[in-house]
TrEMBL record:
<protein>
    <submittedName>
        <fullName>Carbohydrate-binding module family 52 protein</fullName>
    </submittedName>
</protein>
<dbReference type="GO" id="GO:0030246">
    <property type="term" value="F:carbohydrate binding"/>
</dbReference>
<keyword id="KW-0732">Signal</keyword>
<feature type="domain" description="Endo-1,3(4)-beta-glucanase 1 carbohydrate binding">
    <location>
        <begin position="24"/>
        <end position="72"/>
    </location>
</feature>
<dbReference type="Pfam" id="PF10645">
    <property type="entry name" value="Carb_bind"/>
</dbReference>
<dbReference type="InterPro" id="IPR018909">
    <property type="entry name" value="Eng1_septum"/>
</dbReference>
<feature type="signal peptide">
    <location>
        <begin position="1"/>
        <end position="20"/>
    </location>
</feature>
<dbReference type="InterPro" id="IPR052820">
    <property type="entry name" value="PhiA_domain"/>
</dbReference>
Length: 247
């Protein structure tokens, strides 16, 4: 979900001349790089590269909602483990996986995991980042006793607990996540700002991974060089475990 996902079209306040007018929707000029026109009548914004869909007066994201008989409804919660990919067709990381390493989720990194010698062949491959979510919380899909809970850390990066530890940094947020079947993994804490991916710093090395951040009213300016993305859910069979533990 993004900032504009439920804005009624009438409120968009489009004014001729303000936008780079190149097309018209009914009588209204609009910039097709920023809006999509439905039925030659209704304008919806494009957010995170997704032209929002239209349902009886509201624009909505297919990562969270569906429109059935002109009624907007939430997608059902996903009930099995899943992996995530970044979604924004305008970015080079479109379709790249969310990966866990160093107690931190990034986009397009390498999943880092560990398998104790005594467990050996009984460990899952550990090369994919598998996640489970329910009741607003989220955790890593692992075998290690105690599991590994995931959370928004105080910088609004996604972190997860170390194996055998329940420690979560003070100021972290452990609830308010939505995971929708056939849709996306949504942070409901940010007042609709949604996820963003920050390109690797040119000088800092760090490989091809982009940092994943959750934006909100207060950090949006600081993260202005980051690009909005949706996180697309890919459901896996019930019981899929990704690793003994992620490191
Ligand atoms: C992970 O490892 C399994 C088994 O070795 C392999 O089939 C799969 O393609 C690998 N996945 C990735 C993303 O590398
Ligand atoms: C927004 O995120 C920042 C971290 O980037 C955090 O310090 C701040 O408290 C958050 N703001 C709100 C309103 O939750």
């Amino acid at each position: 979900m993004h900032r504009f996902s439920l804005v009624a079209t009438a409120l968009l306040g489009l004014t001729k001349g303000v936008l780079g007018d190149t097309e018209t929707c009914g009588q209204v000029p609009y910039d097709p790089s920023k809006y999509v026109c439905w039925d030659n009548e209704f304008l919806c914004p494009i957010t995170a590269g997704e032209p929002l869909s239209y349902c009886a007066g509201a624009c909505y994201s297919k990562f969270m909602y569906t429109c059935t008989n002109n009624v907007l409804t939430l997608l059902p919660p996903v009930e099995t483990p899943f992996t995530l990919t970044a979604d924004n067709p305008n970015l080079p990381i479109h379709g790249k996986p969310v990966t866990a390493a160093n107690q931190h989720w990034v986009v397009n990194g390498e999943t880092a995991s560990y398998c104790p010698d005594q467990v050996g062949d009984a460990c899952p491959p550990g090369n994919e980042t598998v996640i489970v979510s329910g009741g607003g919380t989220v955790s890593m899909s692992v075998m290690v006793p105690g599991g590994q809970q995931a959370y928004l850390d105080p910088y609004w990066n996604m972190g997860y607990t170390q194996a055998h530890s329940a420690y979560i940094p003070p100021g972290s947020i452990t609830t308010g996540f939505g995971a929708y079947q056939g849709g996306g993994f949504v942070n409901l804490n940010g007042n609709g700002w949604g996820w963003a991916a920050c390109p690797p710093r040119a000088s800092g090395g760090g490989g091809p991974a982009w940092n994943l951040v959750a934006r909100n009213d207060t950090n949006a300016e600081r993260y202005k060089d980051c690009s909005p993305i949706n996180l697309k859910i890919h459901s896996l069979p019930s019981g899929t475990v990704g690793a003994w533990q992620y490191t």
